[in-house]
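Recall the central idea of this unit: under ordinary conditions, the amino acid sequence of a chain determines the structure it adopts. In this exercise we apply that idea directly, starting from the sequence alone.
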Amino acid sequence: MAADLSQVVKAYDVRGVVPDQWDEPLAELFGAAFAQVTGASAIVVGHDMRPSSPGLSRAFARGATARGVDVTEIGLCSTDQLYYASGALNLPGAMFTASHNPAQYNGIKMCRAGAAPVGQDTGLAEIRELVEGWADSSAPEPAATPGTITQRDTLEDYAAHLRSLVDLTSLRPLKVVVDAGNGMGGHTVPTVFAGLPLTLVPMYFELDGTFPNHEANPLDPANIVDLQKRVREEGADLGIAFDGDADRCFVVDENGGPISPSAITALVASRELAKHGGKGTVIHNLITSWSVPEVVRENGGTPVRTRVGHSFIKAEMARTGAIFGGEHSAHYYFADFWNADTGMLAALHVLAALGGQGGPLSGLVAQYDRYAGSGEINSTVDDQKARLAAIKTAYEGREGVTLDELDGLTVSSDDWWFNVRASNTEPLLRLNTEARDEATMTKVRDEALAIIRG
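Accordingly, the structure predicted from this sequence is:
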């Protein structure tokens, strides 16, 4: 196998087709490199339900033990369960998953002790360099004394920790449909929800990394159609969908109506601020709704706007001592969870908020969903920079309009805003638009799209 990992090592993780782009021998080298870069004497490793995950995970463990590092294998787990183990055991961790990517993909999400992220600027570039060097020449020198591999089940402890972070004592009986998409939610939900006054209607809880029912990506509207239908059929109070590695959750109301991740961010932010005495910093990326900073301020908090991407959110969480952070992509980050993202904890907050009052979820979230949004619209373009420049030229100097380039280009006025960002991996521009009413949003969205698409 060629030792060029440029297509496999991404900004925040390792991800590619198995065995075409990477395989078990390379996973073993990644384990050795992870051991060297972290300098740890012990690490924790987990994996999802993909057919290739157990073999890759064990190969990684072999690579680490060959360098004298002790490995705790927690086996099948969600990504946030791996973060829990990294935080609770204070060990660097590696999670084998490709989240919502198709079955032939796999990847590694890595973190340092306490679930601190490993990305390009925090160790991933060095790991790649070591793996490429070893693959091209000789394997790394083994340690005089190899490490050990031990197994540990963390599911019950993970579930108990999450439940300890949310006050569920006033939760009324609720009927909830959960679509696990054949991903790790099918493994974690029954244990996390155990003992709560919930009637659970499971959908696609069978662990199957070939995703026979639908792609495990609830941000794509096509993948929540089954959930929406089942919620209406069951007369359920809400529906929750998880992605493949169950670190993101998406919520639908009692009518099957999708609730924007911005509204969930605002709802959870208000609860976290109440828990912290009406004080605290909340991080949100620049394409979450205007509602988020408004709700944060109304509840006594300080909103901080960041670029899109979990490494930026986590860095700002650490820098500001923030209590919570949310993204439009349905990632939710908690200070009480080592600043890591956990969709399951966000789901518990939604259940507690809904079950702590008598009304329906649609009524509860209306106060957090105040504006008309387009959602993310992708356009394939020949030249990303030229199209961005054309937008800048079209709006620069317009009265009452401001531009900023924190991440892509954000164009704002009193009544609307839109952001255009280039994809790092595809020839796409991503447009998000929001306005005070639907008609204005449609007009601004269409004007921006006309320029993007030339």
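The domain at 175-256 is CATH 3.40.120.10 (Alpha-D-Glucose-1,6-Bisphosphate; Chain A, domain 3).
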